[in-house]
């Protein structure tokens, strides 16, 4: 008797992976599904995904909670780097694919699979992210990608499933939605071009600015060496009783979304060379990065901030572009860790109708407090230098500009 080949499918229960599961089963595979929770599962959804996998014919289903690992290995460095791709996009689900692919490989090795599969298309970058990790960790495993290889449309996948009696919701048919701890990405007809904006019913949990409360909410975010350790109201009430970093981020996603924060549409070049546009919701990351950057202004020197911005952006771009295993990434992380030695303190922020407004910050390593103790008060004066010394500094500082001006106008 011939033994069926076994394949592990990264399974979300969405359209692409639902199609893949049925197609694999009909092709004679034993399909093991692996749902890697990187923050995209809400209460009861894990069981719903499992039920969907069983309905479609999976022989086994695995749920792996990878939220803490995602935060520790990916999110913490994205915050330390203040990374926003093209200055706007917190890389949402793209940065999570690293952990998801690793966990799928772990399941595949555990169950003795012959192959692994994912539901990525060939038009974006996710298929590269998955393949890069799988090839690095388990090159012996075959990678099977029906959506990419057959260049299927969402309409074709929908017809395939409905033709076999499986239900496909209209929203799933219309939009590709990937939700995770970092944020949610939304792709659909409106994002295929550069002019249209996503309609209200495409967004998953954030409110529009018009629908956000008229009164904002103040939070105090406390960091220890660049890591957020608490989020409280001004009277000290914690935003969440769970003190895990990822739980704080999840709570900020919920609260920020209620106040119209986090929506955006990112457009930029992908690693495969095309220009892509995608909607996103990422209130928690935007809040944390805004607060973290404000604290860094208080405790880091200008040179530290400038150098960190350059290296942090390069680190984030390489992470986004599936270069996690390049040795230089270890060097970047070592630098980022070192840069956070004094990034400890509390930041006050106001969340109000789509805006994140820093209200104040404090730290035992405050450069502003150190200057004040030394007698330097901006706009008022200093006991560290005299008026004559200030005049001399201004004179010397202006010399390079004066020389350059004279060289550019030799006739004068």
Automatic annotation (TrEMBL):
Entries under InterPro entries matching the protein: Arginosuc_syn_C, Arginosuc_syn_N, Arginosuc_synth, Arginosuc_synth_CS, AS_cat/multimer_dom_body, Rossmann-like_a/b/a_fold
Coiled coil: none
Pfam family, one: Arginosuc_synth
GO cellular component: cytoplasm
SUPFAM superfamilies: Adenine nucleotide alpha hydrolases-like, Argininosuccinate synthetase, C-terminal domain
Superkingdom: Bacteria
GO BP term, pick one: L-arginine biosynthetic process
PANTHER family per record: ARGININOSUCCINATE SYNTHASE
Protein name from the UniProt record: argininosuccinate synthase
Organism from which the protein derives: Actinoplanes aureus
Source taxonomy: Bacteria, Bacillati, Actinomycetota, Actinomycetes, Micromonosporales
